[in-house]
Amino acid sequence: MARASLGYSPPPLSYFRHVSNLHNYTRLAASSAFHVSSAADPMAHPSLETLGGALHPLLPPLRLPTPPTIFASFYRSTPDVRLRRECLRTTDNGAVSLDWVSRDDRLLPPDSPLLILLPGLTGGSDDSYVRHMLVRARSKGWRVVVFNSRGCGGSPVTTPQFYSASFLGDMREVVAHVGNRYPKANLYAVGWSLGANILVRYLGQESHACRLSGAVSLCNPFNLVIADEDFRKGFNIVYDKALASALSKIFKKHALLFEDMGGDFNIPLAANAKSVREFDDGLTRVSFGFKSVDDYYSNSSSSNSIKDVCIPLLCIQAGNDPIAPNRGIPREDIKDNPNCMLIVTPKGGHLGWVAGPEAPFGAPWTDPVVMDFLQHLERGKSGALSSSDSESEQRRLEGLHQLEV
């Protein structure tokens, strides 16, 4: 009811292609679940469960080979792309780095759709998953910019403050900056992991005033309290130590900025953190004014923001993600919000998804799904439906807000 009072209409189904097929998918989803397996194919997932079948037009073939995430981390190719860096000074004298594809300012028209990419924790424009998404979007004629947070991707740190899951100031400034530079372009965003958490929190905070026309969240931890609990169990400790090491490495490069810091800062703990929790306890939660790590995690979880999202949002998760636990996904809020759609694959790990026509060394299977979604949003922006068509297709959209793949 709150959204209706703001004059916002849920996205019409024209944002998705092949309406007739999608109508069939809706009918099937209401009545059945399919288990797909093939003993003849050793690479097929032994029990692929979907709601509504595997032929949804937004999804690739669903017999997904799923080697471990670590395989993708070490062996996925990294496309060679020439980038032009822009350092953006923020209002608090901090700095973030925006990496644009070289020469696109001259090659692309000013109204080309613009996609902002938000990498995961400690990630940047050099990461393979970011590069693959960038290349795919650029091949469709989109203007793309990678948002490298403070200290990430070689971005400078000019004040004694990094970024965090709670801080949305840099995101607001980046969106305003690129929007003002290209005022004729529709803006979109894709975020991974912590970048996805920041993106969804931004969407919820901005609500109906959001300048983005659509967004995609990938491997979002959503509930950081639950993510922290699972992070310290079993093999997940390996991921925890690796991320803590990456955070400490970035911190040590800029340690002089943090000398003589008073208050509750624990600089030695942050510099030698053996877990993400230790780093956040020594530095992050103090920098952003939280009394404890649990207080920081509880108040920085994007699961709290889903109900306030007022633009089309696609969320893609993996059921076995060690960093973004399946049990932390806010399913009910996603289901209740007519602007949100959820896809959960049984396998894929964290930023893995080694499947599809480019497996095992190329782009993850999610990339074409993401671009299909965004391109249909862009077509919907450029060609509005009649009100009767919109009402008819909106009825067909019911039941599609939560897809478990």
From TrEMBL:
Q: Does the keyword Hydrolase apply?
A: yes
Does the record's keyword annotation contain Translocase? no
Please list the residue ranges that the record marks as compositionally biased, kind Basic and acidic residues: 392-405
**What keywords were assigned to this record?**
Hydrolase, Serine esterase
> Could you name the domain of life of the organism this protein comes from?
Eukaryota
> Per the record, which residues fall in region Disordered?
382-405
PROSITE patterns given in the database record: UPF0017
UniProt xrefs under Pfam families: Abhydrolase_1
Q: Which family does the record assign?
A: Belongs to the AB hydrolase superfamily. AB hydrolase 4 family.
The name on file for this protein is: Embryogenesis-associated protein EMB8
Q: Which organism is it from?
A: Prunus mume (Japanese apricot)
Gene name, per UniProt, is: LOC103337843
